[in-house]
């Protein structure tokens, strides 16, 4: 048995195989993205404050009270109002709007997709100081160019997520079987 496994099972000291804060917050963003009903793009965001407390979570979807059965999910149509784009609230917007703190000054936002220019405006205005993103799929679009320009001007740090572990797995059955008394 390796040292890491021994420490994991050693009941006299703390575990040493716990995940780091960045992996935890990005994991929450990824898990949040799974709530999205968008058939093409599932995006999640998690905002953490300087004390490593989660202060907001969001995913892409339609506004409250707007049925996801009655509005379109398609990406292309002859009329833009028959696409999802005029209606979808992005994950970053939802995380900011769902905040459970008085302010977001100094916070970090973890997002599964580099923010568009509209979300970047909200990020800047909210006081968030750092963006950690998983994918920059639309790097060369005008929207992302504008985002980087605004973040540079506002001195908002933006960095690609670098995981400490390759993968995190949630196995509900195994977790239920292995729960021990606290």
Number of helices: 6
- Structural category is alpha/beta
Q: What low-confidence regions span 5 or more consecutive residues with pLDDT below 50? A: 1-8
Which term fits the overall shape?
Answer: globular
The biggest sheet, with number of strands, parallel, antiparallel or mixed sense and barrel status, is: 5 strands, mixed
Oligomer type: single chain
Beta-strand residue fraction: 5-15%
Question: How many β-strands, per DSSP?
Answer: 5
Summed over residues and divided by their number, the pLDDT gives a mean of 92
Give the termini separation. 25 Å
Report the radius of gyration as a whole number of Å: 19 Å
Could you give the order of the helices and strands? HHEEHEHEHEH
Report on this model:
The chain is of the alpha/beta class and 182 residues long. It has helices spanning 3-9, 21-33, 91-97, 117-126, 142-153, 172-178, and strands at 44-48, 54-59, 108-113, 130-135, 157-160. The longest helix is centred in the N-terminal third of the chain and has 13 residues, at 21-33.
Core attributes:
single chain; 182 residues; alpha/beta; five-stranded mixed sheet; 6 helices; 5 strands; 31% helix; globular; disordered N terminus
The gist of it:
This protein has 182 residues and is an alpha/beta fold.
